[in-house]
Amino acid sequence: MERVQLADDLSFSRIIHGLWRLNEWNHTPEDTLDLMEYCLELGITTFDHADIYGGFLNEELFGKVLALKPELRSKMELVTKCGIVFKSPRRPQHKSHHYDTSKKHILESVENSLKNLQTDYLDTLLIHRPDPFMDPEQVASAFLELKQAGKVRHFGVSNFKQHQYNMLQSYLDFNLVTNQIELSAYVLENFDDGTVNLCQEKRVTPMAWSPLAGGKVFSSDEEKAKRLRTALTKVAEELGADGIDQVLYAWLLAHPATILPIVGSGKKERIKKAVKALDYKLSLDQWFEILHASMGYEVP
Ligand code: NAP
User: Is 81 helix (H, G, I), strand (E, B) or coil?
Assistant: First the structure.
């Protein structure tokens, strides 16, 4: 599996596995361990979490499994996120839904993530969403403390637009290593509004969440989905690919910004297909054919 260097001492696998839906898979701990080891065998070493996934449960589910084979920890990179607060039986202190990027919250959230994931360090911590109430000095101070304590190796953001990214970066003495954004042939917003260009300008590798648009491409009755299915099916046939999901991954992988798709499925065969998509190289004609199908018109 191709690897991508995000910093001198940090690389991610080109395909990442996301744990947002872990609690929906009805896995036993043995199933999850099996899946974790399967990903590692395929070369997927980077696992994406957030404190809130599964209503503040999924990090704990993953950590309990990791504790069954602690030797796996050194073979993987763990990414998690913080900054979103909502009411949950697992967080009785939360009174309402809001963002919190205060130093106190970031430090507390990391302590919880370390405990739940049963690890003593995180490879990368992301601020989950841009916070209209953000005090960048507090974020910078929290990041520095966590870095100096060896609790978090690197930092990034998620869903940040250019101005939000630049503002936070300007308060830090080290570079953010990623911006995790929604990217797929179905959802083009971050291509259109300059967020992908920001990553290219900063030489920062974007992580792509919902690379299959959360499954909408397969099932939606919207005209856009129908157009995309037609174009993706045609390109799949041309490439000899096994389904339109592989073409959706290959479309992201072809982009010059070195996009890292986060696979959201818990099914082995679908994860394997995502990895196999690395073998399919789209021509420029095919790439734009899919873009045009998504937009509903051709570039000027
Ligand atoms: P996705 O891959 O776009 O969507 C996964 C969904 O598509 C699952 O329900 C999956 O069902 C379904 N699916 C996959 N292949 C399919 C196929 N061939 N036919 C029909 N359905 C199919 O990714 P995602 O789960 O939305 O997001 C991926 C990861 O991104 C998450 O786990 C999380 O780590 C991250 N994320 C981050 C943010 C953020 O704000 N930073 C937001 C959302 C997600 P099965 O499970 O049955 O395969």
Answer: strand
Supply the CATH number for residue 52's domain.
Answer: 3.20.20.100
Domain extent for 154: 3-182
> Whose CA is closest to atom 42 on ligand 1?
209
Residue 259 forms part of a structural domain = no
| pTM summary value | 0.97
User: How many Å apart are CA 61 and CA 30, to the nearest integer?
Assistant: 11
Residue 232, in any domain of the structure? no
Let me know if residue 291 belongs to a domain. no
Q: Is 87 in the pocket of ligand 1 (CB under 6 A)?
A: no
CA neighbor of 79 nearest in space, from 207, 252, 229: 207
In a domain, 61, yes or no: yes
Residue with the two structure tokens 């999924």: 58
Question: How many CB atoms within 10 Å of residue 22?
Answer: 22
Residue ranges in the chain modelled with pLDDT below 70: none
- Nearest CA-CA partner of 267 in 24, 3, 1, 15: 24
Q: What residue's CA is closest to ligand 1, atom 4?
A: 214
Q: How many whole angstroms from 167 Cα to the centroid of ligand 1?
A: 30
Residue 179 phi/psi, 5-degree rounding, is: -125, 115
In the chain, the number of structural domains is: 1
List residues with catalytic annotation: 53
